[in-house]
Task: structure prediction
Amino acid sequence: MLQTAAEKPRPWYRQAWPWFLISLAASAVIGGIITLILAINSPNALVVDDYYKEGLAINQKKHRLANADKMGMAGLLRSDGKQLTLSLTSQPAVTEQALVLNIIHSTRAELDRELTLLRMPDGRYAADLPLLRPGSWYLRLQAGDATWEIRSRITIDGPFQARLAANN
Result:
């Protein structure tokens, strides 16, 4: 029997199924390469090397928060974009010359800042504000001797105002 031109099979590269199967394998390879590039260029900074010490530190933080709550401590932190001012209320009144404010980025540890707020003659505290990227930030204010701590969470997109308390 003779084959006619209509019955002649097409070459493999002119058929759809081989290209479909090749595209599945190629997409898996491309996805793997993209995943590898992302893993190399953005290491996970949220993983703590010494998780045991971090766990022990949580209990100390609870103690500091409880002390602030007993004192009825609350603070109002204001920013005009260049300077921070803090008004603090508590019983007994805080008279320390300097307080420590940690400004912690919610996902990127390299953006975290630690500021020292100095007492002004009117009883408020102030410090120059470093440049902060817009986004979600955690604020932790504590005494120099770390006997108490108050906190807040804010979203920064320009000048801001935040209320700090032990139960935030």
In short: The chain has a mean pLDDT of 84. Residues 16-41 form the longest helix (26 residues). The chain has two domains: 14-41, 72-165. Residues 14-41 form one domain.
